[in-house]
Design a protein that fits this description.
This protein is of the alpha+beta class. Helices cover 36% and strands 12% of the residues. The protein has 3 domains: 54 residues, Electron transport complex subunit B, putative Fe-S cluster (3-methyladenine DNA Glycosylase II, Chain A, domain 3); 93 residues, 2-Layer Sandwich (Alpha-Beta Plaits), CATH 3.30.70; 71 residues, Alpha-Beta Plaits (2-Layer Sandwich), CATH 3.30.70.20.
């Protein structure tokens, strides 16, 4: 094989590569999509938790969505009001009031107040515990299993165990919603941060069944509903619920509840203040 027979194909291939490279370069310039200059600014204003609480894959995805007006400046639950205000200033638009929220475990059935069918020994995971007979060891099929799925899901260390059930530290909670998604019993909800009255039950059983399973469960008696002066409390499927937009925090519902399944943080706060004063 002669030197020429090797050189010519090499030159042809090299020339073709050069032409293709020039063509790709021209195409890249012609069809280049200019990045929105707002995206890096919005991204910088976000806290960088990448928790997914906003419904997007992370802060980068949320920043792009906000820049495209596909998400609101208030979409980040972790950043709160300060973050929303900063993003609104970047975009030059007014920002609606940010309502701070926190997670609430809607179960007061701790070990000392609940009945159990058997003792669970296995993985510290609620989904694993639910695979056993009856959907878990508790007599109440709606109650907190205490397996720790929500604790593992929380990136901010806001959830811990208290007497066998999950409890949320409201000062650490960012309302990212990851615990809500992790709970197979759908026990955890996001509520207004400043709300004081909460129904700590999620059972749909009738009163007789509830009493057999738990000392603190809602029996659907409707006394709370009748006591509420603002029509904020309603009982459906034997379970009371509070409309936080109507609730004025008077505590009448908690005072009338015979099973004490309605938590009154205002009453607890007043009691603590009185004890401190004494």
């Amino acid at each position: 094989m002669s030197f020429t027979s090797i050189l010519v194909p090499a030159l042809i291939l090299g020339g073709m590569g050069l032409l293709f490279g020039i063509g790709l370069g021209i195409a890249a310039i012609k069809f280049e999509v200019e990045a929105d200059p707002l995206i890096p600014l919005i991204r910088e204003a976000l806290p960088g938790a990448n928790c997914g609480g906003c419904g997007y894959a992370g802060c980068d995805a949320l920043a792009e969505a906000i820049a495209k007006s596909e998400a609101k400046p208030t979409a980040c639950p972790v950043g709160g009001a300060a973050c929303a205000a900063a993003i609104g200033e970047i975009m030059g638009i007014p920002v609606e009031p940010f309502v701070r929220r926190r997670a609430l475990v809607r179960c007061g059935g701790c070990e000392s107040k609940s009945n159990f069918r058997y003792s669970y020994v296995g993985l510290n995971d609620c989904k694993a515990a639910m695979q056993l007979a009856g959907g878990g060891s508790k007599s109440c099929v709606y109650g907190c299993l205490g397996g720790g799925s929500c604790i593992a899901a929380c990136k901010f260390g806001a959830i811990s165990f208290f007497d066998g059930i999950a409890a949320v530290d409201e000062n650490k909670c960012t309302a990212c919603g990851m615990c809500v998604k992790s709970c197979p019993k759908n026990l955890i909800a996001l509520v207004p941060y400043n709300s004081k009255q909460h129904v700590l039950c999620n059972s749909k059983d009738n009163g007789k069944a509830v009493r057999q399973n738990c000392k603190i469960g809602c029996i659907g008696c409707k006394l709370c509903e009748k006591a509420c002066p603002t029509d904020a409390v309603h009982v459906q499927n034997f379970l009371a619920s509070i409309d936080y937009e109507k609730c004025v925090g008077c505590g009448a519902c908690a005072k009338k509840c015979p099973s004490r399944c309605i938590e009154d943080l205002q009453e607890n706060s007043n009691a603590s203040a009185s004890a401190t004063a004494l």
